[in-house]
Write a structure and sequence with these properties.
This protein is mainly β. The chain has helices at 2-32, 113-118, 334-344, 425-430, 472-477; strands at 36-44, 55-59, 66-67, 84-91, 98-104, 123-129, 139-142, 154-161, 166-177, 180-190, 200-203, 212-218, 228-233, 237-242, 250-253, 260-261, 268-269, 271-277, 284-290, 296-302, 312-313, 325-333, 352-355, 362-366, 369-373, 384-388, 397-401, 407-412, 415-420, 433-437, 445-449, 456-460, 463-467, 480-483. The strands form 12 sheets. The protein has a 4-stranded antiparallel β-sheet with strand order 3-2-1-22. Strands 4-5-6-7 form a 4-stranded antiparallel β-sheet, with no helix packed on it. A 4-stranded antiparallel β-sheet has the order 8-9-10-11, with no helix packed on it.
Amino acid sequence: MRRIITRVGALLTAVFLSFTSLSVSSMTQAAAQEPFTGYLMAHFTGESANGEQVYFAHSKDGLHWTDLNHGGPVLLSTVGTRGVRDPSIIRSPSGDRYWIIATDLRIASGTSWDDAANRGSTSLVVWESTDLVNWSAPRLVDVAGGIPGAGNAWAPEAIYNPETGDYVVYWATNSPRNGVTKHRIWYARTSDFRTFTEPRLYIERGGDQGIIDTQIIEVPNRVGGYRYYRASADGHITIEGADSILGSWTTIGNLSHMGISNGATGGNVVEGPMWAKFNGRDEWALWLDQFATGRGYMPITSTNLGSTRNFRTRSDYGMGTNRKRHGSILNLTAAEESRVLARWGVSTPVNRIQSYNHPDRYVRHQDFDVRIDPNVSPAQDAQFRLVPGLANSSGYVSFESVNFPGYYLRHYGFDFVLAPNDGTEIFKADATFRPVAGLADSSWTSFRSYNYPDRYIRHYDYLVRLDPITDAQGRADATFRVTD
């Protein structure tokens, strides 16, 4: 009897401690949580030259999106394959730290899908920030290397687990198991996105059916009957519910009744399910990428996730200019929204750079080389945004291309090219200049190099170079006017 009483006492103590832990965690999160006022989407755009990087979009209502940073990427990977897909953005419970984790993959480099799935990177790319604006350099974390025969690590996501006080990071890996090679969802735990536990199997479908693109959302007030809901691409878009992230999950259903699948039943074939809760009300959106038709993301919405029959399609949405591929959505507080928009939402004017001594000619890019020409066609080849200098934003500028967002004028071997920002310090320095009074006419402007302050932007035989200026001809060649 004493043994039974002792066990009951221990059980009650454990339950009390567990309840206390959950309550403290919930209170900590609630205390740190201000009202949400907007939304931030992190995504990539596709297999273009710079499409497999991290892009941001903003929304006030959760349905209509505006591309930030003039449609250019906000973060570029300089590690691993030097490309990223499927970015997921995570906030700490106290709201004082953020991470972006992404697939280390760049199909645009010429990698085949077979190589990517079977001989690809088993690492994730990780960025870290304390304000959503200033991000660390990217780092690689090999999460799937311990899985026998692992061919990749795709579509990572993470969610804070109050039961363990750390984060569950989960992703898809293609590997052999029990004689079948297919994608399964694996997970590891971390408290700092640097050190991870060994990978463990999380979700496996029967037979040869693979599963990728799983994303979980927390519903703290358990609308629909569960605290957590997850959507996965497994032939269908399967919705499941649970009260514990690492506990047992119940299948709620799929979207076949809406004519939507991941290929198993045809119809509108989609992937990349992406959850978002609408601010201020119990309503959720599940965004689905209509990749088979190239139509991009569409939302379906529900006020009760306990049944897939509660979803309805929406037509009152807008996705902005960029095509948005698999990513994630973060609800923003007013302070977070203000910081993000101040950094990436400012509308910078479009300008041309007119030559002083050849006033019918303007700086332009052509096949990524840079020269001065008259009658530039298309006109956007001669249009730039003068943005704060990449290496020094105080009194310096960088020239961002209008028709190639994320590409900048930079000197390379003292010749000028238009190139994508690769995130390196040398690129930032090569693409940064100080506007000074025109060397030939002080009412015009000359541009002095940041990292070679004895040299200026000038044209020579109509080609744009970075040279020291020693004579009247050079002063005229190095003088320009910023015009519209």
